[in-house]
Amino acid sequence: MRVGRRETFNCAHRLNNPAWSDEKNKEVFGKCNNNNYHGHNYVLETWVDGAIDPETGYVLDAKILKDIIRKHVTEPFDHRNLNLDVPDFKNLNPTAENIAVVIWNKLRAEIPNQFKLSIRLYETENNIVEYDGQ
Amino acid sequence: MRVGRRETFNCAHRLNNPAWSDEKNKEVFGKCNNNNYHGHNYVLETWVDGAIDPETGYVLDAKILKDIIRKHVTEPFDHRNLNLDVPDFKNLNPTAENIAVVIWNKLRAEIPNQFKLSIRLYETENNIVEYDGQ
Amino acid sequence: MRVGRRETFNCAHRLNNPAWSDEKNKEVFGKCNNNNYHGHNYVLETWVDGAIDPETGYVLDAKILKDIIRKHVTEPFDHRNLNLDVPDFKNLNPTAENIAVVIWNKLRAEIPNQFKLSIRLYETENNIVEYDGQ
Amino acid sequence: MRVGRRETFNCAHRLNNPAWSDEKNKEVFGKCNNNNYHGHNYVLETWVDGAIDPETGYVLDAKILKDIIRKHVTEPFDHRNLNLDVPDFKNLNPTAENIAVVIWNKLRAEIPNQFKLSIRLYETENNIVEYDGQ
Amino acid sequence: MRVGRRETFNCAHRLNNPAWSDEKNKEVFGKCNNNNYHGHNYVLETWVDGAIDPETGYVLDAKILKDIIRKHVTEPFDHRNLNLDVPDFKNLNPTAENIAVVIWNKLRAEIPNQFKLSIRLYETENNIVEYDGQ
Amino acid sequence: MRVGRRETFNCAHRLNNPAWSDEKNKEVFGKCNNNNYHGHNYVLETWVDGAIDPETGYVLDAKILKDIIRKHVTEPFDHRNLNLDVPDFKNLNPTAENIAVVIWNKLRAEIPNQFKLSIRLYETENNIVEYDGQ
Questions:
Q1: Domains of chain C: total
Q2: Is residue E120 within 8 Å of E47, Cβ to Cβ?
Q3: Tens digit of pLDDT for each residue in C72-104?
Q4: ipTM
Q5: Is the minimum CB–CB distance between F32 and chain A shorter than 8 Å?
Q6: In this complex, is the C-beta atom of D10 within 8 Å of any C-beta atom belonging to chain A?
Q7: Of the residues B113, B129, D52, D102, which has the maximum number of CB atoms within 10 A of its CB?
Q8: Residue B71 is part of which domain span?
Q9: Taking a C-beta distance cutoff of 8 angstroms, is the pair E82, E94 a contact?
């Protein structure tokens, strides 16, 4: 049984590899390399796999899941600049893939080990990533 | 090849464990424990896995799938109170997880065995469960 | 300039006219007349019309609008039975139309008079109402 | 007859009134005042009112409408920082309301005068504005 | 008070003006002029304006509205070729605008005169038209 | 890590098995057998599985993925009649399942072998298929 919870957050970001020249960055990242940042409404689905607790009928109470996500992801990320305001991206390019890895690691540390964890992250309605730790 | 069909139904329900005190129920289920019920527009995706029939080009005709879902799930559930009107929940707490198990069992009995079956159930746009019989 | 804010709430309800016989109620309201209630995920859009405040660039701060909606509509309605738990529907049939009138009146009392007010209420993805006080 | 066209663009922005103290800005704009910007996936609906041309069956060819929107709005706005990269917001706070006024003025200059023009702009799925020049 | 009902239908169509040369048609209608047709999932919203009936709490029962729409629009249009199978388009180019006029006229003939009528028709998620008889 | 890209295309099609009688085709395919075709707005999600490239932070640049999809799928399919204009369906019934197999094969030939590939195809909002080559 898998349980999913949807939350949203809004950030500025910029894609850039500091080891590359400006030309190379422009060529690879295009508009996403814009010096002054751009931004997205991110949609995060967090999925937890486990057995149903017969006493509650829940795998994991959505309120508990929501509180973990809000405390560890949406509070520190929402209305921030990922490159400048979120330490995890100080030396990590904030592509949707890398954001997903960072979020998964934060959530994995908080969600009890008996539950498998995977996430889906929408950067736009057309660009989506999924990560389950592998 | 997996084939999915989306159907909807609208129910009242209430979360409660009769073995617990009112205080414990209020504490665990919060607003979902409201004595007089609340309700949802449920969205059900039913997914069937199998080979394509070379004569039809279908895995399973969506009309057949739709008819099974309507007869065994949406007809008996739609515009009902899950706790009071649907016998499956007489002694089972109608969490999204338990509703998914009940629906999966009903559909599994009707869908030919050569097809794997899984379902996704949206309780709200933010709360989702998936079940494939395990 | 019109500004809209989307909020959601989940309720049980039942359509019934106590002045009619059971047969008449069943005939007119069909499945919506179910004795034990059914329910919906309501989606409410609240729209406010006015001039832009040159100091803030807002017509009305979405936070203020959100707080009014939550305090006067979603808090008292969410996870309730409209017929039994919300006094406004004690003698009023909770059709989408009547719910919209009740919500509009509650919001009108709270939103400053220089702003025109209208609402859109989705009962399901297929059934929608709009009301602007006329 | 009204014809609508949906387009999207993704920007960083920050809400701030330079005439105010930092404290006042923080108090009024909250998280939206973040120094390092945040961002959104904006969704723009452009609506044009007019008669059907009997030769084409169109009010205004969606391709023409799309080209005007892309050239004058989505190209100069997409993947930019509204405050720093878009001259229109050099001295104008980029609230959804002000963005809508700027877009409407740009489109009004390009769309033939026999057509009425209005726009709807989604900043998030919950915050929406509409503007028709009044 | 306005009441809206959403229904869908799926059609093939082709845009063409028989008074024009093939070159002119290709130039004006582009890909939509394809000889062998293309197709869409149309989404129709039908909106009815009127007073609430105090006995039912309805402006117009959504069941009645649904039955009118299905009988007069979705039944004759769904899974058809608009140009070849629907007589209304024998001499009328099936642009979204013209489809909206045809649908509005069909519905206007069936919906009691005390109700104002308007429709919104989505040809794709990006192309939308609205018509209210004017 | 899985990366998904959403694209859309609009086609006419007709379901028919030429080895069967007209009666049998009508019985099995119903409205989908309509002689003059009908059509859909197809939504295609393309999912690619692989490791994150540490230099870019991408699994596969969405621009590259988009260009492959547009060149090999949406360009040749969009605004066409699948039965008449797309050679792949000359002798293959264009059910959603068969369309998914054709698309998957086209994309598999273009996407580097180190990436696993799967697709999801929406024929309507209610009918969906998924295919990963097995």
A1: 1
A2: yes
A3: 999 999 999 999 999 999 999 999 999 999 999
A4: 0.94
A5: no
A6: yes
A7: B129
A8: 2-131
A9: yes
